Amino acid sequence: MGTKVKFMPLCGVHSEAPLCYLLQLDDFTFLLDCGWNDSFDTNLLKPLQSVVKDIDAVLISHPDTAHLGALPYAYGKLDLKAPVYCTRPVHKLGILYMYDHVLARLAVSKFNTFTLDDIDGVFEKSIVDLKYSQHLQLTGKGEGITITAYAAGHLLGGTVWKITKDTEDIIYAVDYHHRKERHLSGTVLETFVRPAVLITDAYNALSNQAFKKERDHLFIDSIMSTLRGNGSVLIPVETAGRVLELILYLEQHWATERLAYPLVFLTHVSYHTIDTAKSSLEWMSDTISKTFDTSRDNAFEVKYINLKHSREEFDSMLTKGPQVVLASTASLEAGFARDLFVEWAGDPKNLVLFTERGPAGTLARVLQAEPAPKAVKVVMSKKVRLEGEELQAYEEEQRKLKGLDAAGTSPATDTVMENAGEDGPERTDGGTQSAEAAEGQVLDQVAGLRAPPNVNGGVNRLRETFCDGFTPPAKAVAPMFPDDRVMTDWDEYGEVINPDDYKAPEADHMEVGSPSAANKDANGGQGVDEGQEEMLDEGPTKVVMEEITVQVKSKLQYVDFEGRSDGRSMKTILAHVAPLKMILVHGSAEATEHLRQYCIRNICPHVHAPRIGEWVEVSSDTNVFKVRLTEKLMTEVIFKKLGDYEVAWVDGVVGKPEEDDVLPLWPCNDGTVEDEPAPQKAHKAIFIGEVRLADFKQLLTAKGVQVRASKDRTT
């Protein structure tokens, strides 16, 4: 039998919800993307939670929240343990996306759905980086399966996945873009021909985009007219996605026109986003990589864009005039963009310029409606430090949790010390103990070691365990510990030395790798900065929430910079690929049904659009047999070079299966098979591939044959 292929959506079908799907090849299960929305609603992940133990591998196509946002939660809270495969830019930019989300929410709330440690746990331990066109053959349970990443053209490192087993080749292509842009080349999806199954999205099936020049002019003209009118421009953007295209365009325009208006990129990880882009030129368009190879000019060495990663830094610019700010997040559900919208929306001179459609149900989507609302209600939250009675109540609660009294003394210590006399603690045999023995009793009881009070070994153990050689004064009768203890790692050669401890710190450009500046990742990066560390360790606080009504007087405009193929282009590409079977995902119900009907009429009859939790089987109607060529047959085979491959004729006879269920193939004249005809020594010539008239004409001309072109054909 052939490979059994089944597919089931967990989220993101007949809607614009995040992408998350199961693909099963025999008994091996892939998770295709693991997306979430900006509200981080755990109800969306209930279908994933029910199947998390069955997942053997995860394939991530893009670094944004809609494609990998649930990874930290799935690995940190749902106990997903499968390896994650993606390209290196998706890996690096995905960390930045998730860090920005957590830091933006921690600044105004007690966000604990997932933590920075959860992010580090999955991105440092479970990610396997792949290059484009790199064939990775899985092992173990996935023996016989090959996965390959190809360029999708939507986001940096974005991937079209090809999954192959036996005669089955499955293409997973969502959010692709065929046009070449400033920082990315187009997708290679058109290079695939007649795959067994194509899994693709219907997100843009009903949209038609304007020409690139018209779009660019509209974008710049809107910005410049606002600035000249003494207004500011807010561009809500994602952390590290399509903002790279906008940065290149604005940087180029500011340099060409020598503009003095402040241009700001404001996210919690803005420095790291640009650093990652500067180190990923080989994943970008040919123009960018060739320019760097010839002149060493890095397109992301920005000179006009101010990189700010906190509100304090942004406010310190003291800019009172017009300015352009690219701030996260694009949905306006959190982050600096939400704060600036509330502050700027009341000024009719300002402009809020959207470059991508906001997810359904978000503030950005509400503002993009036709007609735009005159007023919107926004819930704003902030954290304030506890003071007065609230602070005292909090400290009292913490003392109770730790088992301390009002003076901060452990009850265990009080029990031991209350019987201590002027000459020392009272012994059980009626005598008195020395100060050292008394210390041993106190420390032993506090630590739970329960050593006899008159045995000095307990004191020595505690000194070694807790004090690292610290010797308290001889008259001390209470536990004493040094305050500056440092836990040191040791190996067989002595103390482990971290070379990064001896490097000069870099102020601005450090790579994100861990939740604190003291913890370095495997690449020598640095995590959040000092200001963000203070935010993470801010002491007792409370969250104050307030619903306010924002009068929207500023201009609202949408210019499509999403970087996805539109409906007309999608249909052309799908007709060229011409898959045998199709599965449609990620698109509104209207767009999905429209594309399904079109594909049934014009591309292939087998088009599926399953619902959440619905399995569909898309196996090919073929039987597959594995055949092993015998050594005698291989010695008689004559290979001919054909491009990158070698081909040969094979005449043989299939024998009986052996122990490994693989059929042996002998040459026809082998004595093991009787009454077989003698092998044919010569074969008719065949041509493999396609004949192009231009190549054929060139060949005939080289052989001295005169060729002339007519209206109908070449003669």
UniProtKB/TrEMBL annotation:
Pfam families per the UniProt record, alphabetical = Beta-Casp, Lactamase_B_6, RMMBL
Query: What does the entry list under GO cellular component?
Result: cytoplasm; mRNA cleavage and polyadenylation specificity factor complex
Major place of residence: nucleus
Gene Ontology MF terms: RNA binding
The protein's location, in the record's own words, is: Nucleus
Q: Which UniProt keywords apply?
A: mRNA processing, Nucleus, RNA-binding
Q: Which residues form the Metallo-beta-lactamase domain?
A: 17-223
Occurrences of domain Beta-Casp (ranges): 243-367
Q: Which GO terms describe its biological process?
A: mRNA 3'-end processing by stem-loop binding and cleavage; regulatory ncRNA-mediated post-transcriptional gene silencing
Q: Where is the composition biased (Basic and acidic residues)?
A: 500-511
Region annotation (Disordered) ranges: 403-437, 500-532
CDD domains on file: CPSF2-like_MBL-fold
Family stated for the protein in its record:
Belongs to the metallo-beta-lactamase superfamily. RNA-metabolizing metallo-beta-lactamase-like family. CPSF2/YSH1 subfamily.
Q: What is this protein called?
A: Cleavage and polyadenylation specificity factor subunit 2
